[in-house]
Design goal:
- It contains 21 helices and 15 strands.
- The chain is of the alpha/beta class.
- The chain has three domains: 206 residues, 3-Layer(aba) Sandwich (Arginase, Chain A); 365 residues, Arginase, Chain A; 43 residues, Zinc/RING finger domain, C3HC4 (zinc finger) (Herpes Virus-1, 2-Layer Sandwich).
- The strands form three sheets. Strands 7-6-8-13-12-9-10-11 form an eight-stranded parallel β-sheet, sandwiched between helices.
- β4, α4 and β5 form a beta-alpha-beta unit.
- α3 runs antiparallel to α16, α9 packs across α18 and α13 runs parallel beside α14.
- The longest helix is centred in the middle third of the chain and has 20 residues.
- The structure holds N-{4-[(3-aminopropyl)amino]butyl}acetamide (Q9C) and zinc ion (ZN).
- The site of zinc ion has 7 residues, from loops.
- It catalyses: N(6)-acetyl-L-lysyl-[histone] + H2O = L-lysyl-[histone] + acetate.
- One of its GO terms (biological process) is epigenetic regulation of gene expression.
- Belongs to the histone deacetylase family. HD type 2 subfamily.
- It comes from Portunus trituberculatus (Swimming crab).
Amino acid sequence: MALTEAMDGLHSGVALAVHSVLSIHSKARVVVVDFGNCVEPEILDHLFSHEPRVLVLSVRQCQYASGSTSRNKGRYSNVLSVDINCNIAESSHDYLTLVHQLLLPVIYEFGPQMVVMTAACEWNIYPAFLPNMAGLFLPVTSDRLVMAVEIDQQRSIVVNEGIVGALSTLLGRPYHPKMSQSESLRPEVCQTILEVMKAQQGNWKSLRYHALASLVTSSTGKQESLLPSHLQQQTIKPQEDALLKPKELECFKEGQSVCLVYSEAMKEHLNYADSTHPECPDRISCIFEQLCNFGIVERCQRLKAREATLQELERVHSSRHIKFMSGLQALKPSELHHLENSFDSIYLHRRTNRCALLAAGSILTAVDCVMSGSCQHGVAVVRPPGHHAERNNPCGFCFYNSVGVAAQHAVTSHHLQRVLVLDWDVHHGNGTQHMFESDPRVLYISIHRYDNGRFFPGSADANYNRVGLKKGKGFNINIPWNKGGMGDAEYLAAFLEVVLPVATEFNPQLVLISAGFDAAVGDPLGGCNVTPECYGHMTKFLTCVGDGRVIVALEGGYNLTSISYCMTLCAKALLGDPLPCLSGNLTPCQSAVDSLISVVGAHCKFWSSLNLKGKMVESPRKQASSISTQRSISSPTSSQAVDELAASLSQVSMAEATPRKIQDEEKKEEAPGGELEGACGGGHEDSATTLILSDCLGAQELYAVVPVSWCPHLEEVQPVPDGTLNTSSACEECYDTSENWCCLTCVVWEVCI
Ligand code: Q9C
Ligand code: ZN
């Protein structure tokens, strides 16, 4: 290997190191992420351009260049260059978006055994840069990460904090300095990401199937080069509070950093009539036993389970419901059995209330422990589960909404402004959504099977277009899968493309995971294939957002072996242990990609990190409750219309087997007239219509009616009363006999020539 003269010490060192790894391990794959400088940008590219075992990702700010740089076009398949025409040094948001949505998908697809990250000093890097990058790159290679950083005496303060934070992160304790409220993404960064994505789609499936891919391809040549004058180069001045001496940094605090709460008392709730019921007492004891076997329990601070108090429950449940629950202990088994029929998927026991109180109280204890600073993270091995429980009634094996009670407790008692509830139970957490859908302080994100409305709990409330209400608009994110079999590839894509960007932008002070493991391999109810390792990776990702406080609370999950391994991997992630790499095909299936496209389409106006195409209408924090009343917002530009069209067309393309529909809740049969989505123009009576519509659009010779995903009237869609729809009858209001099945307030008319 020839080192060129122009090469600086940092890069020649990295080149030699990579070369040496490859000579020792001939089959190794190495990723070099080079946050370099502009002086000699192409050295590593050239050195490794013909070495397929090395993938070079080089990110540079080139604020002196004009227009888009040619390197972004991608000359070598194993070199991905990201040249950005502005100074993004101070903006964490810019970097993180780039890493989440562009670099990580490619890195996971490449599947390296080692990542080498280099950072040159010329960049005025924001303090959390190194720890942020360390946290995100670590899990990919089971912690085989090398960071090569050039230190500049002049900026030693920022760099020192960064280095100490990075070391802490490498040691398994992600470092979370206070981040400034996230600024908006810079247009240059959005443009660059889309440009690189487009150029590299031929090389990387993860980019081809990225939720933004359809937007990328539909925007050919239209994007203007933007260089607003307000983006002058700025110099960074370290703030006073950045002048921390390493030993004062929080990351060096002694003590155990994960608390664990479990009690056998929660095994008492059981099904008298059916001992084979999946929600069985052994669920929690199996998990606990496995945590003991892996030496995890002894590494955690054990907390005592307690019952939730009346006052804590009343914040999210009605007194009627609480009274009903406490009355159960006085009933006979036969009476309890009889009562079960008034609910959906519920069995009752004399001890049900006590167990449900303990489940909720245990999570509250973990919240108090983590918020007091005595632990960084928490694990709650509890049952019965909670996320289906509504304010006023039990549902789906759930009685009190434990995570809901805990989120409200964090807001009310700990005065938190931003709590993230991430629900990866295979079922939608209807109860949690309903409790917080108008509250912007609690961001609810759920990844669940939806099956076009047919999967439990079987309501259209679980669809992607339920984005929250009033002030909570944008703070309810549903990621609905429309078929079974989803696994690591799909969950990873959901995380990299939606969960991480949004969670990072939200900047939560606390993350509560509604951790059902019924999407795991082998679950009898879920029909999905998520591996325990993947649950570990998802947990680890969440420790990288906001203040990095994460509590994992058990919800569903019915394969005792699976759930025990899954919880073990989550706990290991929280303890900072290296996680096994994800293996296998990590390309998400088309149906999952379609779901992600819908989610991004519904939420890009609330979250700038999902809005690389610049479709932002209002930022979520500034946005008022007025969105549905402001008509101006509902008139998209023509380029928006094109994007919506692209998004809805890609929906149509997966419709071969499953025409889009929201299932009539009472009527589980497929009757053509029972399709509801037509109310906003998106429904097609059958697949023949679908084909004709897309044909016409291809030929560009007809008018097309395109529903907008943010139509504020979508929520008002009701089932067709008698199950049939006569499209030729006159409109009840205006007696017009032309088509009356679309919402004319929101429809976008696209005139094709
Ligand atoms: N035909 C949780 O995972 N299934 N609850 C009922 C009715 C109920 C799942 C099927 C599944 C409830 C917490
Ligand atoms: Zn579930």
